[in-house]
# Entry
Amino acid sequence: MSELRQNRATKRWVIVAGERARRPDDFKVAEPTKPLPIHDPLCPFCPGNESKTPAEVLALRDPSSSANGPGWQLRVVPNKFPALRPVGDLERREEHDFFRKMDGLGVHEVIIESPRHNESIGTMTYRKVEQIMLIYRDRYIQLGTDPRFQLVTIFRNQGQRAGTSLAHPHSQLIATPIVPSRTRHMLEEAMRHYDDWGSCVFCDMIREELAAKKRIVLETADFVVFEPFASRVPFETWILPKKHNASFGNISAGETRKCARALRRVLGSMHRLLGDFDYNYHISTAPFKDANESYYHWHISILPRLTTQAGFELGSGIYITVAFPEDTARYLARSVKEGGRGR
# Structure
């Protein structure tokens, strides 16, 4: 039987279509007919092609290597075709006293995660994923010192269905001088819950999910991973710190490494179960000015692209999912447990 479910943190409704429900192992994608090579001479992110990207902002390199040349483990470069550029001012202008606009001010960077063309987060070593997360944190903190920016969004698009145009493993970040409406909505809903109940809705969600034990994928001393009660898509997965914290930028280097290990364990298990699947993930965090508030709680959201949203979803804003999160969470948790901690 179908159910309408609501996410308490976002107030978003979803339909779990029971009549269309599929088993968790039905979502495995076909393996690519031509696996990716370790190196692609035409890829601008592969070693030897550093001249095809803007000059690096930051890099982890062999001591003997030179900037903007081979010998790196990870590079951060400005996006060659940025959505925003770090020039302009913050003035908001009206056109015909109605249409509002401002300069396209911001920063758009690419984190080139590995010199190996055929890697992904789910197949990398744990240490490599720790390095990536530490770079996320470093760039977030650095950009937070620029008073022009209100928010940094860190995200990863894996595969064509997730919107990527280059196969080489990479993430992106965009610093914006405004707070997007989606983030504003989540903040407002979290604030409303805090005003009504005197507690963080995400902390309450963690407590209830741990008590229910139906959708937990992984629990560590510092993080909990679960599939939300009102998951938008099959295998939607959230990673939340147990300790309340509104901002990703507030966490320590040690906490960053522990988060990276949880992310790697989960995506590694998804990779084993689902194959070379497409997905997006992003770090949801409070804007800089709200970094120490009691009502918000930073987290990572993973959204696999295993199904397609169509007219009803676009028209109503209500997602239809064809898998119960209790089933997919149990299936994924078993794989996470069997996969162990890794190295």
User: Anything to note?
Assistant: Residues 253-274 form the longest helix (22 residues). Helices lie at 126-143, 181-197, 201-212, 253-274, 311-316, 325-339. The chain has one domain: 3-23+37-87+109-339. The chain has a mean pLDDT of 95.
